[in-house]
Amino acid sequence: MTVDLSPIDQNLLSEIASIHGMPEGAYNIRKDGQLLVRNSSANIEIATKADNPGIDITIKPGTKGETVYIPVILTQSGLKDVVYNSFYIGEGCDVTIIAGCGIHNSCEEDSEHDGIHSFYCGKDARVRYIEKHYGEGEGTGERILNPVTNVYMEKGSHCEMELTQIRGVTSTVRDTNAELGEGAKLVLTEKLLTHDDQTATSNMKVALQGDESSVQVVSRSVAQGNSSQTFNPLVIGQAACRGHVQCDAIIMDKARVTAIPGIEAASEEAVLVHEAAIGKIAGDQIIKLMTLGLSEEEAEAEILEDFLS
Amino acid sequence: MLELRNLSFEVPTQERSQETKRIIDDLSLTIEDDRFTVITGPNGGGKSTLAKLIMGVEQPSAGQILFDGTDITHLPIAERAKLGIGYGFQQPARFKGMKVKKLLDLAAGKKLPMLACNEYLAKVGLCSASYLTREVDKSLSGGEMKRIEIATILARDPKLAIYDEPEAGIDLWSFDRLTETFRDIHSARNGRSIVIISHQERIIQLADDIVWIKDGRIEAQGAADVIMPQLGFLAKDHPICTLTQPTELHLTEIPTTC
Known about the structure:
The complex is a heterodimer.
Chain A: H1 7-17, E1 26-31, E2 34-39, E3 44-48, E4 54-59, E5 64-74, E6 80-89, E7 94-104, E8 111-121, E9 126-136, E10 143-145, E11 148-153, E12 158-166, E13 171-180, E14 185-194, E15 199-208, E16 214-223, E17 228-237, E18 242-251, E19 256-259, E20 262-265, E21 271-279, H2 283-290, H3 296-307
Chain B: E1 2-12, E2 20-31, E3 36-40, H1 47-55, E4 62-67, E5 70-71, H2 77-83, E6 85-88, H3 100-108, H4 114-123, H5 128-131, H6 142-156, E7 160-164, H7 172-187, E8 193-197, H8 201-204, E9 209-214, E10 217-223, H9 224-236
Parallel strand pairs in B: 3-8, 3-9, 6-7, 7-8
Antiparallel strand pairs in B: 1-2, 1-4, 4-5, 9-10
């Protein structure tokens, strides 16, 4: 299947999904609210939803080592794209899902993409989900991304989610919800960089419902310029479970960061820990890198890059 | 060659106070190439400040610093680093998200081959396989941080390396290893100079030259065999400065065998 991609399209796809040209295997690329190109594979079926805009991705039980790409790009100003994507990940799978949204807005009108993603992780399935959000373009129109991520994890399933938003997104409200069954394990890593007048809010609610379930929430963020960020992760322990929430933020310029890591135990066997730290780049870090020959600006950039790596 | 000419460093006695206190007082010192110099003396005598003035972390109130004939008194830290001055911090900075490998690469100014990393870490008694992918953050103990700090200077290989109390915060085993490392650096110096600020007799014993600093001034200076016998006498007035055993013992378990 061949599709013509403009240089802007190609750049967005490279930023959000590190893909150059068409990927191998199963993929679905959406552009400006329309399907651009789709490919199902022997084990991964991608089908248009009957009720809502969006797709159902069904991965056969036992599928191992496959990757699905479902990037979305927006280059048309003034468009609000709402999409519902559901992932049905069969028992015993071991797969990687690469999603993301890139907006190029060169006009005055706002562009918005709201992706509502639901993951149904079957028994003993292992999933790695990577989502990158990115905005660019010289227009004054806002670039808005409001993703909702719902994760339902069955017994013994394992899910690693990396949610990243680096630069260019004017405003975002992220909602992430997860329910974990017995022995399920979730690692939720969120990385965020805001600048200028951007705003970002991240709400998370993770319910540890089964014994031996565990979650690790790691939030790393950098707030620059006049931007503001709010983190509101809540882990609820309803069984003999373990939960750890860690929010770490670097604050710069006139930015503002609010971190409200929450833990709620409804079982005396639940072990829940939270920690949060907000601070500027430490002077001793910059000085150390300067003694290695980096300028102050280079040192700062290096520290931020590693912090969000 | 490093030359310090009539160097002074003053700080206000209190915040916003006009009154100042001299930390370094009209100090002149020359450190020749190919020499291993230990700067010692009582705590609060100005040793670390002197090291910071050489690296450019602090700016002198008066005086001049010359490195290989170039006036570097007002050069920024990075420029001094590029000219060949290296500095091992007493309390190394930690970096969230930065891997040990990356820090060594930054120190060397290039992507280092694994073999080189192994060598630098082995020299400070760390197993490369266990450490290269570790993050230089609070998951590392004080002793581990200190060894990695020294490894960054080895990777940087500066013409003039200054180590500020490399033994502080290091456990006894590491201290033995550290002494060996400095002995090796000393024998392989090949024109480079090493300056170590230290209280430890076993490190002082390695020196070609010893400089004794007290109250921001040089009290005694000269070849090690001349100064060494005087040190016991000099230290007697300053019981805080014992020249026998490592000052701080942190007994941490650090994997040292691969």
